[in-house]
Amino acid sequence: MTKEAIGVDMIEDWDTGRRAPGRWRFAPLVVVAAGLALGYALGWQHYLTLDYLAESRQFLKDFVADNPVLAPAGFLAIYITAVAFSFPAASVLTIFGGFLFGWLFGGALAIVGATTGATMIFLMARSVCSNFLRRRVGGLAERLSKGFEKNAFGYLLVLRLAPFAPFFIVNIAPALFNVRLRTYVAATFIGIIPGGFAYAWLGQGCDSVLMAAEAAGQRVTLGDLITPQITIAFAALALVAALATVVKKMWASRI
After folding, report:
1. One-character DSSP codes across the chain
2. pLDDT by residue (tens digit) across 206-250?
3. Which of 55, 155, 165, 236 is 20 to 30 A from 92 (CA-CA)?
4. Most confident of 22-31, 137-146, 188-197
5. Cα–Cα distance between 49 and 243 in angstroms, integer?
6. Nearest C-alpha neighbor of 161 from the set 197, 134, 137, 133
């Protein structure tokens, strides 16, 4: 049976390269959009803020202490869901992780959750048809394509290390350029480690700031977390930015 007989409105399966009916092309995108809309409609975004952490910090701490297995498992599930449905809360959730579980364990949970959620959205983007997405991303796609074609792992690693690169865009951009799944997972996992642990360290040291803000009835922002005890966390974030620049220059010099 020829391709024409089967129909040209088809898309590639992410692992086998086989084709799936065109009528299912946008099903993953519809699911993600519906999930995101449902989350906002139910007000879930209010629970993914520093304000909520300040208001509920003792309850959350008690819950973690009483549920040593369920609490980290639940946090991991929430993190994966938030990233997979593109909720803009990765940094705040990582701070939650450091606050509730300590910088090491909390950071590890955040890194695993972010990698898993990002991989899910990557697979979704591939299934939606890369050509369709590339036409709508336009010039940005053309610029990114050159880097991915020369060194997919190195280019994606630089984007992950750079704190100014929007997490959602970096999640889906590789899907436009046939980046292999294992390359995507490896570069994502390695690239978010520095920032993940830095934000978790930030969360571990923010208890006193949250208590003061709650007592004063003030809203908590990331700027309020700057204290002498956690200055090292910001130094670590600065190191991430510097490392991204160094890696990018070294990589460019080898092309």
Report:
1. --HHHH-S-EEE-TTT--EEEGGGTTHHHHHHHHHHHHHHHTTGGGGSSHHHHHHHHHHHHHHHHH-TTHHHHHHHHHHHHHHHTT-S-HHHHHHHHHHHH-HHHHHHHHHHHHHHHHHHHHHHHHHT-HHHHHHHHTHHHHHHHHHHHH-HHHHHHHHHH-TTS-HHHHHHGGGGGT--HHHHHHHHHHHTHHHHHHHHHHHHT-HHHHHHHHHHTPPP-GGGG--GGGHHHHHHHHHHHHHHHHHHHHHHHH-
2. 877 777 666 666 666 655 665 555 556 556 655 665 666 566 666
3. 155
4. 188-197
5. 28
6. 197
| Size of the chain in residues | 255
Structure tokens of 129?
């048809």
What is the C-alpha to C-alpha distance for residues 169 and 205, in angstroms, rounded to an integer? Answer: 30
Q: What's the CA gap between 94 and 103, in Å, rounded?
A: 9
**Residue 235: alpha-carbon gap to chain centroid:** 21
Instruction: Indicate the average pLDDT of the chain.
Output: 75
What is the sign of the dihedral through the CA atoms of 151, 179, 187 and 181?
negative
Please state, in angstroms and rounded to a whole number, the distance separating the CA atoms of residues 158 and 8. 36
- Neighbour tally for 182: CB within 10 Å: 9
